[in-house]
Amino acid sequence: MKHILLIVGSQLHINELFLAYIRSQYLHHFGESALIFYVRDGDNELPFKIEKYAKHTKIITIVASDANFSTIAKILSTLSNDTLELKDTTLAPSRARLEAKDSFVVELENAKINLLKAIPTQILPPFLLHLEDKMLSFNLLDIDKNSALSVLKELGVVHNVQIIASNILENLVYVKAISQKFGQLDGFLAEVKNNFVRHFIASDNIVEFIVSRLKEIKASITLAESCTAGLGACLLGQIPGVSEIFAGSVISYANYIKNIWLNVDESILNEHGAVSAPCVEAMATGALNLCGADYALAISGIAGPGGGSLEKPVGTVFIAAASKQSVYSKKINLSGDRDYIRKQSALSAYAFLLSSFWSEICAFKDEEKI
């Protein structure tokens, strides 16, 4: 194993909001998730576990609650035949590398170990270790994963790069490229761009990519959401500086709100229903007119677990993408629980925006010389 994460302390384990923050910060720092172990308070086996992990893992990150931080600092000091001392208000082994309050690094066996103190509602101290692997990640849109992999693996052999790919959506493939010894990531990436014109998204986050492109072309976006209830807008809100291209959106859960706020005609709702192509097209057009944006997305579907029918089972979702000149819609069939379906729906809408308006949003990117 290259890296693992230990989260120590029962008060951290029951705090899902703070756990999500820890996992998110870890992913942002390392660029990939780790194998995570949860260790309860007072686990007498913890010294032996740390010693075992250190023999087989290069990087160990231990996030400990306030109540466990000093105990683990003492364990690390004992295992590394060191003594504890107070370093700028942080109790740490004397030979530890301390670069920030409540975060230090020690070496044990084959591993480097970073211990951090985590206090809910407070900012997490910085992670101090880094993966040695050189890697990059990107997305491929509107292409079959197996077809893409056959090309990517051939390029990987030429440039000594390992390829890992996964379907985020049916039409969106997330790719991670890891340089092996003497690998050539730059050459690999250049050939990927040439082989996947109109498919290549130079980011591991397509929403972040869209925001950057909209800023580049000085265009704005809005949304009209039903079953996702604001998840699409939430994805935008996670991107720093998004206010430059996003002024607001509409959550139109009930049909009368679709009618009053978005001007979706009652005849559409009565004849086709809220989960239909005509409805999402009208929602997107209404959002454009209401917000004055350049592009709009609309989402309406059946997220479950109830509400489905033979004609429209759970997972039936319609999405639309509109500009001031055109509007397009698409039916997608998703699987999973309510939360997974809603998240897929929101991301699918952004992917559909790129599919529908690639030549407008990504025109300059396609013209760049590689």
TrEMBL record:
Domain CinA C-terminal, chain residue ranges per copy: 205-355
Keyword annotations of the record: Hydrolase
SUPFAM superfamilies from the UniProt entry: CinA-like
EC class name: hydrolase
KW Hydrolase (keyword) present: yes
Entry GO MF terms: nicotinamide-nucleotide amidase activity
InterPro entries: CinA-like_C (IPR036653), CinA_C (IPR008136)
Catalytic activity, EC: 3.5.1.42
One Pfam family named in its UniProt record: CinA
Name assigned to this protein: NMN amidohydrolase
Organism: Candidatus Campylobacter infans
Gene, per the UniProt record: pncC
